[in-house]
Each structure stands twice: as structure tokens, then as C-alpha cells.
Amino acid sequence: MKILFTNIKELLQTRDNPTTALKAEAMKVLPTIKNAYLLIEDQKISQYGSMNNLPTIEVDKQVDLSGKMVLPTWCDSHTHLVYAGNREQEFIDRINGLSYEEIAAKGGGILNSAKTLENTSENELFEQSVKRLESVGRLGTGALEIKSGYGLSLEGELKMLRVIKRLKEYSGITIKSTFLGAHAVPLSFKENRQAYIDYIIATILPEVVSQGLAEYIDVFCEKGYFSVSDMERILEAATEKGLIPKVHVNQFNAIGGIKAAIKYNALTVDHLEVIEEQDITAMQNANTIAVALPLCSFFLGIPYSPAKKLIEAGIPFALASDYNPGSSPSGNMNQVVSTACIKMKLNPEEAINAATINAAHAMGIASTHGSITPGKVANFIITKDVPSYGYLMYDFGNNNIDSVYINGMALD
Ligand SMILES: N=CN[C@@H](CCC(=O)O)C(=O)O
Ligand SMILES: [Zn+2]
């Protein structure tokens, strides 16, 4: 099936595939073609160019996109989309003065979600999660990473990872799976964190790997959760088994997690709200991608990651939603890029690069996703009639999406 899209007001992110994530000045460049055409064939992008050079092509369908723009779908490289219930009560508690950390210290937070998940059947967990997945798809997300981490036991973690696997099979949206057993210490190991780490390494990790349920390994490296040496133990064991690190570091405190993660060739270090000079130096000497999560900062009222500083230091940089019930109950990547422009002072080109091509690198799918490139999957967003692409970020909170194509097919 060949579909030809014509009279595209501006076709964004048209590029040959960069083999590594964009850095520094390259982040400011967004290649586009005004008054363009785009040809897709079955599930793939086949050809594009200026309407002035439109070749004669026999097609099955032609779609006139006058006034509309086209850009690749968002890649969301950091989510916790599989969870049960919600944490609205903690939201109210925070409005009334408690902090995220205080709520967690009282047994809420991640442990609250773990309890709800334990009391939710696998089918129900799938049903709740698939609704979120379909909803972010309609908001233009064409690929996302999903973490476990609300199971915190062999059964619980495998239940979450099986749900992620089912979502992969069910949906055309590309999904990558991450094992985050070390998200919090469960109550059953309250006084013995080391024993929980032993249990992760000796019992949960081997099952996750032998059942092929995860590509990545994550640890919440933070005061009150897992120390740098805890993380190193887990990364040592998991990388030996072939999992690639993508870790939570520097959310509330800079405790040295970035340097340690880089030692284990982390693909990404995520959060980075609190950064010290030595963290920047460590990232400058590595290929690890910095992933910032502006909706978490927005929702919790914590500092934003110093994105401009990271980009200026030449560190490859991506944006993600962190969709989860506690610190970012939204997976709306349009809101992510808007917030990155408004609060982190990224320009629209940097924000779009960070949420498309660099985000694809941040989840290991840049050879197939993240740009309008012949041979890549035909995943793209068609906007409504908008004056410019910067308007998409300026017009925050409003839905400027006309339709979303995943694998060459329009979503309902
Ligand atoms: N900080 C650790 N994990 C999540 C929050 C998880 C939760 O509160 O349920 C995050 O990335 O913000
Ligand atoms: Zn997270």
C-alpha cells in the first residue's frame, strides 16, 4: 500500500540517520522542507522532498495536507506507564504541605503503588495500562520505554514485565522494557536493604533474563533508596547478563550516581535535577545520554534539570515524560516539549531533537525511529493548521494534533 501526502506546509526532522545522538550546536539544527511531499509504502517511509520536485508516482491513496505540518512521532525513553490505581491522595497531601520525600518516608510513594499493584490482577493491570498506552499514542508517542518497579518481589516484578510484554504484542507502538526491581526497598526487607539487593541479584534478575522480559536495567540511586555501591552491585550483575543500564540518578541529591553509571556504560542517566560540576565532567567524557524529565519537576515543584548547561557542555541530551502515578501522572510528550521550552529555555529545535532523534537513541531504536528518513518506520504526527512549528510549544496545553500514523496506519 503506497500513500502519498502532498502540500505539507513543513516536513520536520528530515535527515539521514545520525549514528550517535546530537550534541551541542547540532541540537539547534532541525532540518525541514517547506511545501513538501511524503511517500510511505506499507509500514515504512519511502521518499520525501519538495513539492517542486514531486515525481510521478502511482499510489493507492493521496492525502492533501495543505496548512498542516508533519513530524516524526515522539519517542518517550523513560516511563512507568504500567501501574495500578493512582496516588491522588498524595497529590492532595503535597498541596497541603508534605513533600514527595516526606510522603515516601511515611510508607507512601512507590510502596503505596506497590501495595495497590499487589492487589490488582494481571489482567486488570493490563487493562489499566493499555488505556494509558492508547491515550499517549493519540498524543503522538510512537515508541516508549516502560519500567517495572512497583512489584518489588519475584511475582510482582514478573507480573509487571509480563504486562509490558503483552503491551508490546498488542500495540503497534514500539516498546522497550526495563527491569527496575531496585526502585524502593519493600516493607518485607525494611531493615535489611542488602538482603533485598541479594534477592534481586540471586532470584529476580535471573528469572527476568531467562524469560527475556527486559532489555534494560534501572536503579533508583538516591538517598533513602539505593546508594551508589548498591547500584554498582546491581549493574555489575545485570550487565554481566546482558542488560544495559538506564538509571535514575540525581533527582533530589547528587551522590555520585552519574560517574558510577558511566563506568557501567549506561545508555542513559535520567532525572538530573541536581547536578554538580563533577557530574558534568563525567558526562563530557562519555557517550551516555542525559535524559531530563520536565513534567516531574513541574508536578513536584522541584528544580528543573539544567538542560541548557548540559547541551552547552556538549552532552547528548534527550527529553522524556517519566509517566508514573507519583511524580508525573502524564505521558503527554507535547506538554514535555512545551515545558522544556518554557522552563528549561530550550529553543523549539532543541526540544524537538531531544524528543525525537535523541530520544530514539536513548532507547536504542534510532535506526528505525526518531526522524523522517527513508527506510524508517512510517510513524509521524500530522498537525492541525498551525502557523509554525514553534507554535506547537508556545500554544501549550492545547491539542494541535490532527492525526497520528503508526507503522503507516492512522490511529482511530
Ligand atoms: N524517582 C523514582 N521513580 C519515579 C517516581 C515513582 C513514583 O513516585 O511512583 C520517578 O522517576 O520520578
Ligand atoms: Zn522514573
TrEMBL record:
Transmembrane segments: none annotated. N-formimidoyl-L-glutamate binds at residues 150, 324, 326. Pfam families: Amidohydro_1. Its main location: cytoplasm. Pathway: Amino-acid degradation; L-histidine degradation into L-glutamate; N-formimidoyl-L-glutamate from L-histidine: step 3/3. 4-imidazolone-5-propanoate binds at residues 87, 150, 183, 251, 327. SUPFAM superfamilies: Composite domain of metallo-dependent hydrolases, Metallo-dependent hydrolases. It is an enzyme of class 3 (hydrolase). Binds 1 zinc or iron ion per subunit. GO terms for molecular function: imidazolonepropionase activity; iron ion binding; zinc ion binding. Fe(3+) binds at residues 78, 80, 248, 322. Its EC number is 3.5.2.7. Its cofactor is Zn(2+); Fe(3+). Keywords: Cytoplasm, Histidine metabolism, Hydrolase, Iron, Metal-binding, Zinc. GO terms for cellular component: cytoplasm. InterPro entries: Amidohydro-rel (IPR006680), HutI (IPR005920), Metal-dep_hydrolase_composite (IPR011059), Metal_Hydrolase (IPR032466). It catalyses: 4-imidazolone-5-propanoate + H2O = N-formimidoyl-L-glutamate. Zn(2+) binds at residues 78, 80, 248, 322. HAMAP family: HutI. Belongs to the metallo-dependent hydrolases superfamily. HutI family. This is Imidazolonepropionase. It comes from Galbibacter marinus. The gene is hutI.
